[in-house]
Amino acid sequence: MPRVNSMKSMKKKVNLTQSKKAPKSMKVVKPLRPCLRRPAAMEAISTAVVVHPLKASPRPASTQIVVSNLPSVKPLVKKPAAAVGSLGPTGKKALALRKAKSPISQSSILSAAFTGRPPTVARVDKWAASSEQRIQKFGHRYSPASAQSGGTTLLEKVVVLDSGESDYVLRVQAFEQWRVVNQLPCQASLDVVLHQFLDYLDDMFLAGGGQADGSKTWTGLMHLVPQLRDQVPYGLRVRKALSGWAKRAPTWSRAPTAEVVVMALIGDMIGRKMLPEALNCLLQYLTCRRPGEIDALLVDQLIPPSKMARGHLSEVWGVLLHPQQDSMPGKTGEFDKIILLNDPEWSFMSAHWRALTVNRPPKDPLFPMGGSVVNLCFQVSVENLNLQTENLVRYGLRQAGANNDLLLGKRSREEVETRAGLITDSPLNRYTKETYALRALHRIPLAVTDYGTFVKANLPTVLTGQVPLHSFHDHQFAKPN
């Protein structure tokens, strides 16, 4: 019987603990409290880092998707570290362990608060360094008690990159504007919002939009309004509508770009004295990667061969994508992706890759001009070659590289998928359409194919300055009659 009474008293304590209400708004960001509450840990939590989060909205009884509630991309304002006197016993103990001359950051003592163990020098230093890096990278997307207020938490947000979330915000804003124009009620329950969205998809379809636009808007809506994920029946209707869109108006895919066209484009850039931009496009073509991945490369991510290595690694260059220490994975969640530039046909490029990195700080951008400049340079070359009707974009260099490796038998299908970072077969099926590639070649003017062939044959001597190379327009006048 005494045992039963103690169990009842424990249940009462649990109920009392759960009935406490959290304050509606907080200026100080307080992490979740551990289950085992120690006085020192509690005092450590009370001295957490102060940041400027997004204002947490109260839990809505109905859903109103308005621009003011959507996440902003406001840079984090760093606060100076607090004085030693504000630290609790745990913090002072950690400070004594480190024997530091300056006060430690308040966030560095939270290792004890969350793990429930006494702080050690290694753990305090590790948490402090990690906290500093994460606040700098992700703090602008954090808001306190996000899930409790019906929003998306930080860890749910960082699955999507900043650029992806910005795209989602724009698409959801367009949906919100459509609701306003059509005088639909903005204060509505979730099922009403989903009914409105189904009608929105119909209007997008009849307006000529692509199925990818509807799918991205739906993904963005679920990302920014996570409560919609609980509406399973309506989610099934949305997916059925998107399936109907895909069947009746399938996404149009570009024909693979032939290598001779790629060489013509790169040659025109070199002829216009845009060598760094040309090397950027060539590296994207050889690695089969996305433009943004090449634009984001740092000098130390283009890794030279080493004489100490064995076999082919002593002769080939490598590209390191998404280093784990940067905490920024690729689109498919990959870290430390190594791509070897091991095609014997392009071994002459070794000296030119070295020229890109020699005597440069390791953390400098490999291509300082930025992606927008490379995109503009690419489009100018497309216009110079009179290929506007081919709808060529810089992303097509990735498809061209994969297509060329497969059609010429340089790599197996599995090797190309791994190299390009593809997790499904459907993208590769779009890249390798031999008949489309042949039909596209028939549309390319003969002057462009001749120019591309000349560039490919003479590129080793062109890059060393032994053979002059003009832009496509000037090359036509420089040719002997």
What labels would you give this structure?
481 residues, mainly alpha, hpI Integrase, Chain A, 3 domains, three-stranded antiparallel sheet, 51% helix
Structural class: mainly alpha
**Helical content class:** 40-55%
Uncertain regions: pLDDT < 50 for 5+ in a row?
Answer: 1-63, 71-88, 97-108
Mind telling me which CATH architecture of the largest domain this is?
Answer: Orthogonal Bundle
Per the CATH scheme, the topology name of the largest domain is hpI Integrase, Chain A
Q: Could you give the distance between the termini?
A: 110 Å
Number of domains: 3
C-alpha Rg (nearest Å): 29 Å
Find the CATH superfamily of the largest domain.
Intergrase catalytic core
Helix count from the secondary structure assignment: 21
* SSE string, helices as H and strands as E: HHHHHHHHHHHHHEEEHHHHHHHH
Order of the strands making up the biggest sheet? 1-2-3
Gross geometry: globular
State the CATH class of the largest domain.
Mainly Alpha
Q: Return the average pLDDT rounded to an integer.
A: 77
- In percent terms, what proportion of residues is strand? under 5%
What can be said about the biggest beta sheet? 3 strands, antiparallel
Question: What is the topological layout?
Answer:
Elements: H1 2-19, H2 39-45, H3 89-98, H4 110-115, H5 121-138, H6 154-157, H7 162-181, H8 190-206, H9 211-224, H10 232-248, H11 259-271, H12 275-287, H13 291-295, E1 302-303, E2 317-321, E3 337-341, H14 350-357, H15 371-384, H16 396-407, H17 413-420, H18 426-431, H19 434-443, H20 446-463, H21 472-478
Antiparallel strand pairs: 1-2, 2-3
Helix pairs in contact: 7-9, 8-9, 8-10, 9-10, 11-12, 11-15, 11-20, 12-15, 12-16, 16-17
